[in-house]
Amino acid sequence: MNEWPTKPGGRVAIAGSGQAAWAWGLGLAHAGLRITQVWGRHAGRGKALANRLDAEYQELTLEGPAPWDGDVLVIAVADQAVGKVAKQFICGPSQHIVHCGGTLAMDVLAAHPSHGVLWPLMNLSQAHERLLQGVPVLLETNNQTLLDILQAWCQDLQALALPSTLAQRTALHLAAVMTANFNNLLLHWGHRILQGQGEHRLLLPILQEQLRLFAKDPADPLVRQSGPAQRGDTETMDKHLALLEQDPEGQALYRTLSRLIAQQKSKKGHD
To answer: Is 198 left (phi over 0), alpha (psi -120 to 50) or beta?
Structure first.
């Protein structure tokens, strides 16, 4: 990995100072790449990241066009800002530019000769050096040279490089939201219900078993569905709703999910 700074793609500039920028900056630096610059609109966060990476800080003014120092520029900002940020920069003949959006088309960077997408299937809210290890990273580029660079990055990051299309990225993004993001809301309600009644960590074994079976068995997880809604146990469901009497949002959530479980069971019964 010590050879990276002298290899194609070994010198990286980062545009952004939020969670994604920190995750990519820390991860790539840990993998042996040289982070040359951090471009940020928020000087506090941007300078902190630049100092952490021993990189130069540059203000992201959106008034470009501006030259930048490096082989690859990683635009790690919110999807709606990628197009505006990309316009600030000038790419030389041997420079490449990528964004990190899960549902954003690669074409937003089409003004630059060599461009692509580098999207990790991971929540980046707690950035650290090893966050991307083992993580699927979906790649899309308009040329083989850049694809080779990004695949080499993933190898040194110990991430799983997956060449993809926009349709594949978008589907995975939606699946991640439906499972990981929405599940976090359900975990919140489990934590909330158990206040004063027990540690929410008591739920960990049942959750771990679900994930173990999800990883092991390619079948639809609904084949393992259990619980009162699946059984049609209205007596138990009424008890649960009574416990949620002071929590109308919780009641609504319980009723909605129970109805969906019953509907899916009915559909399976008619297949």
So the answer is: left
